[in-house]
Amino acid sequence: MHVLRINGKNRLHGEVEVPGSKNASLAILSSIPLTKGQIVLHNVPEISDVQIKLALLEDFGAKVDWREGTVFIDCSGFKYHEPDETRVRPIRTSFYLLGPLLARLGRAFLPMPGGCLIGARPVDFHLKGLELLGAKVEMVNGCYTASTEGLHGAEIYFDFPSAGATQHLMATSTLAKGVTTINNAAMEPEVVSLAQFLNSMGARIEGAGTSTITVTGVEELGDCTFNIPADRVQAGTYLLAAATTKGDVTVRGIMPEHQTATVNKLREAGADVSEGPDWVRVACDKRLKAMKIKTMPYPGFPTDMQQPMAAVLTTARGNSVVEETIYESRIGHVPELNRMGAKIRVEGRSTLIEGVSTLTGAVVHASDLRAGAALCLAALGAEGETFIKNVHFIDRGYDHLEGRITALGGEIERLDEETWERDYAHRLKPHN
Ligand code: EPU
């Protein structure tokens, strides 16, 4: 159990390179049972979600070798396996293995997935789609059992453009006989990355990145070497770190077009933002202006940036409204930011933020991954020391966060349980 100690009010400045995308990596790793080939993935982020996913793949017979950002996977030996619930529950994308395992082996078994507690997160679109593709899926005692006599192409429509269902069904249908069309598909960059990965193994996918995706089934997929693109949410978080510390940070190795929503909102709030072919720079020397934000599917403002942006707006001049339209309860950051002196209240799907001049350090608890990121941002801009507990949530999606923040001039350190208890816990009085 680690604790992050952050001493705020250091102006972050300099350049930061962002590691590979969590959500692209997880979608790609979910699809690899489709191939019997050899996979090489470069720029894989060192985060716990990826570690968990690779361990799960090993349970199914994959041979994995992870060396400094590159993962080598021998996919020749996938076998039927019934994983334990504790292996599957920690990450939601464990469920996206169901279709690819089914396409490869004709049957599959998976306990229900878990993931961050930010809403109900049903999987009905996935299940409907798998059934249209020719799978029979049953849920018994909290576990899914799927079987098929052979997958075939289908016409699929989503009531909402789900990133996960688009990725899961697009991948599964690569080995289905005939043509599959996915309508009202998600347009997230991670869908495009997955399609590129699958196509480089021999799949025939067209339209990824638009709302209609067409997949023409092939007999088999082969080997592939693929470079995971940069993580747009980690990138966005460092851009917000510049804003919240009145700093000047250039984030490199990214696709600026994936930051459009965040960048435009930062400009609206008064930050100075410039962009190049593979970088974005945010400089800010004054208090930001309050504003309205509404999360939307890509290319709208990303839900994954909602909590971090709310943290930045706690000290903006005026009243902000942040409306969350994707998840019904992505609000774990609110009580913790209020402990730091923020003035936020929740009304329905919106958080109403009355800007204060500064936050002050406190002992706070991360309730999920992006709430943890929000607390880091708040702490970087706050007066004094903040101690963030439940760091394992942040480790799910931020790769070497302390190293990157330190290199930018921030004061952040990871305390182990013993150091926390010995040097800090007794002299701090946690608010309850
Ligand atoms: N939905 C359904 N039924 C389904 C699937 C989704 O009703 O079968 C609903 C969800 O409940 C939600 C909405 O559709 O209200 C969107 O969910 P989506 O399926 O797009 O989300 P996801 O695939 O489960 C991924 C990311 C999330 C990110 C969302 C939206 C991964 C591993 N997760 O989740 O990332 O918030 O897309 O962009 O790719 C994070 O990184 O912190 C994170 C939560």
Overview of the molecule:
There is one protein chain. This protein is α+β, with helices and mostly antiparallel strands and 432 residues long. It has 2 domains: 217 residues, UDP-n-acetylglucosamine1-carboxyvinyl-transferase, Chain, CATH 3.65.10; 197 residues, Enolpyruvate transferase domain (UDP-n-acetylglucosamine1-carboxyvinyl-transferase, Chain, Alpha-beta prism), CATH 3.65.10.10. Helices cover 31% and strands 25% of the residues. A 4-stranded mixed β-sheet has the order 21-22-1-23. The chain has a 4-stranded mixed β-sheet with strand order 2-14-16-15, with helices on one face. It is globular, with a radius of gyration of 22 Å. The chain starts with a strand and ends in an 8-residue tail after the last helix. Bound molecules: uridine-diphosphate-2(N-acetylglucosaminyl) butyric acid. The site of uridine-diphosphate-2(N-acetylglucosaminyl) butyric acid has 28 residues, from α1, α5, α6 and α12.
Short synopsis of the structure:
It contains 15 helices and 23 strands. It has helices at 22-31, 48-59, 85-88, 98-105, 124-132, 163-172, 189-200, 232-244, 260-268, 306-313, 333-339, 369-381, 391-395, 401-407, 417-424, and strands at 3-7, 13-17, 38-42, 63-67, 70-74, 107-111, 135-140, 143-148, 155-157, 179-183, 204-206, 212-216, 224-227, 248-252, 272-275, 279-283, 292-294, 319-323, 343-347, 350-354, 363-365, 385-389, 411-415. Strands 21-22-1-23 form a 4-stranded mixed β-sheet. The chain has a 4-stranded mixed β-sheet with strand order 2-14-16-15, covered by helices on one side. The chain has a 4-stranded mixed β-sheet with strand order 4-5-3-13, covered by helices on one side.
